[in-house]
Amino acid sequence: MNTIFALASAQGRAGVSVIRLSGPDAKKVVAKFVSNLPKDRVAGLRILTDGTGEPLDHALVLCFDGPRSFTGEDVVELHLHGSIAVVQSVLRVLGDSGLARLAEPGEFTRRALENGRMDLAQVEGLADLIESETETQRKQALRVVTGHLGALVEQWRSSLIRAAALIEATIDFVDEDVPVDVTPEVRELLIGVKSDLISEIAGSKVAERIRVGFEVAIVGAPNVGKSTLLNAMAGRDAAITSDIAGTTRDVIEVRMDLMGLPVTILDTAGLRDGQDKIEVIGINRALERARNADLRVFLAGDNEVLPLAQQPDDIRLTPKADITGSGVSGITGQGVSELLNNIQRVLEQRSSQAGLATHERHRIAMQSTLTVLDVVLPLVDLGPEHYDIAAEELRSAIRSLEALVGRIDVENLLDEIFSSFCLGK
User: Fold this and answer.
1) Which fold does the domain 127-209+359-406 belong to in CATH?
2) 3, 20, 95, 104, 113 from 100: Cα distances, Å
3) pTM of the model
4) pLDDT per residue over 17-32, tens digit each?
């Protein structure tokens, strides 16, 4: 592989900017502009020149010898003063050296994957960590980055390999007396993996909601104070309010950090028989988004029929407490704090059930494995004459797990995954 470089910190003026190089000539490139490179993992303050002796900046230089580096290759980092001019000058002289090229998006992380420093699940976790906006998202992404999901998948894979080995050993001795019946151990291994998969698949749906954010829809008739309540919850004027029914025509979204949980509050159109085509479209969108939301807040009187079936965790409140004296009011703020606390309590309870798998791709791979195990277990019960089919099915299940962590059959995914990374990653 050739040597690459890129700005690893954010674009623009900053206190410190970091330029990263990786590849076989990383040290050779930097040595053209810095004298006396520091030893492996020892930071050193050096004068960075343009190659002709003209100083560019005082830089903190760190060298990481491969394979004990992020990418698995020799890596050098230049910690510069965060001037736009300094960064541009250093990037220019690195490019003019002829020994390195500008990295493509995600290329540093891709090399880490190709050199065995990370698995594909960790790569996706790193992307999620970079994108995380709340404490819950950070914690979840960090668990994946540190290899918890990969370790779990490897545990399942080892169990399936053990089961397949036992079955194939029986096949090899089909014409002889096998001293031990392997069926009990094989069943125990398969049932253990199956139980784990069922649990993790269920938890993956919650984990994915944490990653992308929960949706909470405010639902009710026109002019019951939905937009005013949204503004009170958001702490700003996110939606237009008026005493004219039908003011909200489209779904208005406000994203917020609710005690560490990523939540998008949806202000929906008032549900009634539409007065014109545009309002009808808005009402249909409101119904669809409300049905698909993770939680609904109904603003309705005690005897009012709800437009949607209320789910167990949904919240029902009397609107306009500034007039009625009870319920919630976006105008006075009555009940708003209690509402936010209730939403946080419900979503936090759901979050406690989150698994390690955070992407639909993970869930599909696990579901594929589970489907195969549902086929294999009856085959095992039928006896040794069906073990050859069971062994082949188990190989299919193992391949599904290997695809989850990027060992096989994921080449078509890599370009899409790494395109979301910045140049310095």
Assistant:
1) Four Helix Bundle (Hemerythrin (Met), subunit A) (1.20.120)
2) 5, 11, 6, 12, 20
3) 0.80
4) 999 999 999 999 999 9
